[in-house]
């Protein structure tokens, strides 16, 4: 893939924790299919690009991520399939577990997300936007929403999403 450098100039809106020299990007995902796996791998590749220093990337399956993970992170990248017109049950469970414990402590932090659906992702996008708005998180990059098999441009957009979120957590 050809890597674009536009992410270097993008900085997320919102307040990140600056308690340490190394920021943490928490990637919370539900990855039940090869298409979701390809998108996750592209996001992680972008977030861990060698040009981005000072960011620790933590990956958690949605059913394993905890409120402590969320509170210890400076930004969030969420990934889900679209299931029956909604985000996956696993990502919904994650939000149910962390919503109130993290409500006050994470307001203003940057986030981004990607969604994969067989034919439509509208409901999943709407549900993620609704919950993250309630949490007061600030979207730091356009969402990546893919219906059908992800193509080269879709995977590049996932790479950019990961790079943008990670680069936005750096001080430079």
UniProtKB/TrEMBL annotation:
Residues 62-128 form the NADPH-dependent FMN reductase-like domain. InterPro entries: Flavoprotein-like_sf, FMN_Rdtase-like_dom. One of its GO terms (molecular function) is oxidoreductase activity. This is NADPH-dependent FMN reductase-like domain-containing protein. It comes from Streptomyces ambofaciens (strain ATCC 23877 / 3486 / DSM 40053 / JCM 4204 / NBRC 12836 / NRRL B-2516).
């Amino acid at each position: 893939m050809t890597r674009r450098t536009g992410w270097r100039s993008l900085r997320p809106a919102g307040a990140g924790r600056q308690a340490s020299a190394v920021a943490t990007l928490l990637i919370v995902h539900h990855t039940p299919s090869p298409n979701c796996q390809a998108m996750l791998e592209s996001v992680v590749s972008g977030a861990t690009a060698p040009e981005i220093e000072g960011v620790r990337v933590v990956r958690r399956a949605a059913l394993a991520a905890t409120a402590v993970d969320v509170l210890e992170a400076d930004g969030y990248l969420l990934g889900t399939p679209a299931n029956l017109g909604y985000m996956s049950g696993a990502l919904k469970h994650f939000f149910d577990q962390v919503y109130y414990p993290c409500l006050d402590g994470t307001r203003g932090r940057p986030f981004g997300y990607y969604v994969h659906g067989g034919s439509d992702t509208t409901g999943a996008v709407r549900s993620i936007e609704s919950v993250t708005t309630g949490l007061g998180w600030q979207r730091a990059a356009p969402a990546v929403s893919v219906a059908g098999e992800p193509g080269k441009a879709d995977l590049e957009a996932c790479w950019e999403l990961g790079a943008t979120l990670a680069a936005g957590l750096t001080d430079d």
